[in-house]
Amino acid sequence: MSPDEPTDEMPGGPEQPTEVTPVGDEPTGRIPEGNENPTDVLSEGSDEPTEVRGGAAAPGHGSAQPPPAASTSGVKGGIGVLIAAVVASLVLVGAYLVAGGPVGPDGAADPCDARPWTDPGNLEEAAQQFALSAADGAACELGVSREELTRSIADDQARQDFMDEHGFSETDLEEALRSGLNRAVDDGENAGAISGLAAAGIRVAIKVMPMSAMIALLENAEGIFNGDVGSLGGIGDAIDAITGGVEGLDSGTTDDPLGSLGDALEGALPEGTTDDLQELIPEESRQKLEDQAKEQLKQGLDDLLGP
User: Fold this and answer.
1) Number of domains in the chain
2) Residue-level pLDDT at 196
3) pLDDT value of residue 114
4) 241 phi and psi angles, rounded to 5 deg
5) What 3 state SS string does the chain have?
6) Cα 153 from chain centroid?
């Protein structure tokens, strides 16, 4: 068949026979009625026709070029800033540690550290300082915080639970409270809040205080600062006797200023203590010990009062 001859009829009828396209002419397809510009097929649901992108290949002439990759310069820059911030924060923390700064929340104060005392001239504040010093001293002896010790002496059950938890005996707790009260007396005397005479009497009384009296003194020490020690019972009588004896020695009186000390201390000691001592120690030895104790007490008071 020569190129000049018409093609065979298309199936379905001769209404639209094809023609030979002249050399150099591009064949065109039939434009759908109502459209003046050919468009790509729209996806279902799209309202706007798509446009042919510049440079896109026509169908059958190769696949479309992939979109250009997103620039990574912005991402790299953000990561660099983040790393710099982390490094700077680590440097600051390191410098703070080198300088001795603590990390984390502040812990409880160390009860073994010295507590600064002042003489506020106010009964309530002075008693509060005494109680804090005493609690610190006792807590330091036991190796616990002041707050834990204070909670432990609130009542008998709390005290027993505290001793069971830490393995302390009543003797351990008594000795710790005694040490704490002596520390409070020392602090108060050094600050000028407690006179030397009162401090001497209180120290002697602390040596024989039962636990209940020590706890009562720790909870309310106002009697020490206002001179009203009657609330301490027999211990208060002992303090009065000791301070009265000191004043008697200072006045040069010929009367025995310490005559009432034994009776006062006997009232402060647990019942039956002096009777047990009398049975164990012969009369002659007991008298000798009593004389030696009085002499040592007088010598100590003389050193306290000075020339």
Assistant:
1) 1
2) 80
3) 83
4) -65, -40
5) CCCCCCCCCCCCCCCCCCCCCCCCCCCCCCCCCCCCCCCCCCCCCCCCCCCCCCCCCCCCCCCCCCCCCCCCHHHHHHHHHHHHHHHHHHHHHHHHHHCCCCCCCCCCCCCCCCCCCCCCCCHHHHHHHHHHHHHHHHHHHHCCCHHHHHHHCCCHHHHHHHHHHHCCCHHHHHHHHHHHHHHHHHHHHHCCCCCHHHHHHHHHHHHCCCHHHHHHHHHCCHHHHHCCCHHHCHHHHHHHHHHHHHHHHHHCCCCCCCCCHHHHHHHHCCCCHHHHHHHHCCHHHHHHHHHHHHHHHHHHHHHHHCC
6) 22
- Is 189 in contact with 196 (CB distance < 8 Å)? yes
Write the pLDDT tens digit of every residue in 65-80.
555 555 555 555 667 6
pLDDT at 57: 47
Rounded to two decimals, the pTM is 0.47
Which residues form the domain of 272?
Answer: 123-305
> What size, in residues, is the chain?
307
The reply to whether 245 falls in a domain is yes
Q: 109 in a domain, yes or no?
A: no
Q: Is the pLDDT of residue 264 over 70?
A: no
Residue with more model confidence, 149 or 23:
149
Q: Would you state the torsion angle of the CA atoms of residues 166, 172, 175, 176, taken in this order, to the nearest 10 degrees?
A: -10
Is 38 contained in some domain? no
Q: Give the pLDDT of residue 218.
A: 85
Distance CA 129, CA 123 (A): 10
43 within domain boundaries: no
Q: Helix, strand, coil % (nearest 5) of the chain?
A: 55, 0, 45
* Contact of 191 with 119, CB cutoff 8 Å: yes
